[in-house]
Amino acid sequence: MEKLAIVILNWNGAEMMRKYLPTVLRYSPEATVYVADNASTDDSVALLREHFPQCQLIQLEKNWGFADGYNQSLQSIKAEYYLLLNSDIEVSHHWLMPLIEFMDSHPEVAACQPKLLSIFDRDRFEYAGACGGYLDRFGYPFCRGRLMETVEADNGQYDYATEVLWATGAALMIRAKDYWDVGGLDGRFFAHNEEIDLCWRLRIHGRKIYCIPESYVYHVGGGTLPKANPRKTYLNFRNNLTMLYKCLPEKELRYVMAWRWLLDYVAAWKMLLLDRNLGEFKAVYRARHDFRRWMADFRKDRETIQHDRVEIKIPEQKRFSLLWQYYVKGRKRFSDLPNI
Asked: Which residue in 99, 138, 217, 227 is deepest, having the highest Cβ count within 10 Å?
């Protein structure tokens, strides 16, 4: 069995791999590098065969999406650790050893991430995961180094290993046993929020998630869908609601869902009236409609998660409202947030 398998899930990402795969191969001697191709229609497979024969190629018969694409691919890989890595990541020298050493010496930790920096501004965090993620009480994700749309400069203010609720799917190192013990990524999500859902389930089961900023990588971000994209908005809202339904304790579920009904529709009308974006407006309405329609499909998941719950109160799921702190209190940095 391998110690570490780096697995890059690719869909029409030939240009990204041309740019960034060489750094992964150069700076990852401790790992075997796999590329799982999600039935790309560009020249990804030809590129890999011709220019990167040292990569192990897994060809999937169709586009399974991010979540199930990894599930399908990882089934054939025998390793102690998986490292799920986006194709638009540039890694740094010796990036792996801090992660491996931390995981080896902390068996209670299921997963971790490096510090995620922007490839366009290398002294600034990158939106998708920054220095480790949390949730507020209503399910809104935020990070050390990123609140809402505000991304902080990296001045070393978060350069210490710390426990978080979720690690970014852009560069997620996870024990294979833990991954499969909780059923892996939820393939029904297709993409977006799937790594938060996975990490939250691990925390509910008593496992820990960390950010290890001694390791750092650079991320392009938004490589598949642009930021203001109705499809992305739809998946984020639908999957976030589904994740809340699965993972919230019974005593919190109705309260949080009632507030989210109000907050989601406020967000939708803001998109229409202030942003003049009809597509985003429709995406939120469709996401809520489709969540209600498929919620029953997740009832057994919820029952299992709640029955097996080890952690009742998870400190990294904060008790405050991020919207209130950000928009009303004017707190734009993680370090300004209350510690509750």
From this structure: 217
